[in-house]
């Protein structure tokens, strides 16, 4: 199974363990090793910063910029800017009318550190919405990688969304890039079908287990004469040692084990192996902004 496979690696530069802690140890300590690995492997990707992460970690932003990788945006404070897919304690989605201001402010904060406007976006938890896409389009973003294929199960390849419904094709300029999921496997998660999602199998089960899902999905696309685009999401905190629980403020937070399992050296080892396996398949690796431009030009189909 090879030839003409496009890969987009995205890192969501956020607080450690997503919304469960206020710390930035992953952004502080994993950016350099990841950039060095990309340079060693001769590939590039996109690092999506929350506005707060960019402001608090300007050296990380500068490192990504100088390495030739893309700096994108990941909301203001890792808030829910789209439609909620499942409940998370203490997390309340923004109202649709609040979204434009928050996206403008997030863009502004990243731009202040980066020196130019970010033009690629990913919503925290892949929770996008029509209000979000319209806000991004207004700000001239060229790509969004928020579509959770495992949940909507309608879009398997990138598309230009509709301003009336972001999950449908339309005439917007921005390119929506669905996040890879195994659409062939039998799901054991009725309704949500979250077990189709690729994350975080590379560190919880290993690259070999993930590659079985990748091979299955690549065949699924090729059998339908669809272009093969694999969009992945990772987080810098996955590549440092992570505690199973954290105490701060007035409570102890213990995330579900899959969120912290295999973080640190194992994740880095498996991620390096994943790059090699994808290269063996003949894959090429793209920044999200460059990919979107090529897609809109019709050069990747």
Briefly, what is this?
Residues 15-229 form the NodB homology domain. The chain has 10 helices and 10 strands. By secondary structure, it is α/β, with parallel strands linked by helices.
Structure, described:
- By secondary structure, this protein is α/β, with parallel strands linked by helices.
- The protein has ten helices and ten strands.
- The protein has helices spanning 25-41, 51-56, 58-66, 99-114, 130-138, 149-152, 201-204, 207-223, 265-280, 288-296; strands at 5-13, 46-49, 70-73, 120-121, 143-144, 175-176, 228-234, 246-248, 251-253, 283-285.
- Strands 1, 2, 3, 7 and 10 form a five-stranded parallel β-sheet that branches. A three-stranded parallel β-sheet has the order 4-5-6.
- The relative contact order is 0.18.
- The mean pLDDT is 96.
- This is NodB homology domain-containing protein.
Form type? globular
**Which second-level CATH architecture applies?**
Alpha-Beta Barrel
Number of strands: 10
CATH superfamily: Glycoside hydrolase/deacetylase
Task: Give the topology.
Layout: E1 5-13, H1 25-41, E2 46-49, H2 51-56, H3 58-66, E3 70-73, H4 99-114, E4 120-121, H5 130-138, E5 143-144, H6 149-152, E6 175-176, H7 201-204, H8 207-223, E7 228-234, E8 246-248, E9 251-253, H9 265-280, E10 283-285, H10 288-296
Parallel strand pairs: 1-2, 1-7, 1-10, 2-3, 4-5, 5-6
Antiparallel strand pairs: 8-9
Helix pairs in contact: 1-3, 4-5
Features:
301 residues, alpha/beta, TIM Barrel, 5-stranded parallel sheet, 10 strands
